[in-house]
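Fill in residues.
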């Protein structure tokens, strides 16, 4: 009999934990507004240690993308997972997340700009994807002076490369 009571209690505890998980999803709004593959991606970001602030900004960008170009979501989810699978890209992603709170004159911002520029140049992002990255970056830079500097520096470098390409 005690084992029956224990089993029943374990079942109730598991059921309550599931209710709690569902309520948390509803409270965040992710499950209501985004497809399951995006919600899974956001959960993966949390598991990697990306801040909740960054995850919320990312979520908001996915909501906007869903409104603007819903057909692109499966492809973009695959691309994001591929980025997070790559250790170097994941390291950069975490550094970007941490840099939001840095002073714009912090020397780490210069190193981050160099690393991001090299990463972006090596990957030669297509224009469509670059627009999505710009959307996410713009949302972050609204809240971070360090990221305002990062975005301006990267835009300046990209423009210099385009100008050099037109001249060459």
């Amino acid at each position: 009999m005690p084992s029956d009571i224990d089993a029943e209690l374990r079942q109730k505890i598991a059921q309550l934990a599931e209710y709690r998980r569902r309520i948390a999803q509803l409270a965040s709004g992710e499950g209501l507004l985004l497809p399951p593959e995006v919600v899974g991606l956001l959960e993966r970001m949390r598991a990697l240690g990306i801040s909740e602030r960054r995850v919320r900004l990312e979520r908001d960008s996915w909501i906007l993308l869903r409104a603007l170009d819903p057909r692109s979501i499966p492809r973009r989810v695959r691309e994001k997972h591929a980025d997070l699978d790559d250790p170097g890209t994941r390291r950069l992603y975490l550094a970007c997340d941490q840099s939001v709170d840095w002073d714009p004159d912090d020397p780490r911002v210069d190193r981050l700009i160099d690393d991001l520029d090299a990463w972006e140049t090596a990957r030669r992002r297509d224009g469509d994807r670059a627009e999505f990255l710009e959307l996410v970056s713009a949302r972050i830079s609204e809240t971070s002076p360090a990221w305002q500097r990062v975005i301006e520096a990267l835009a300046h470098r990209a423009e210099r490369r385009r100008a050099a390409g037109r001249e060459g």
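DSSP finds nine helices and no strands in the chain.
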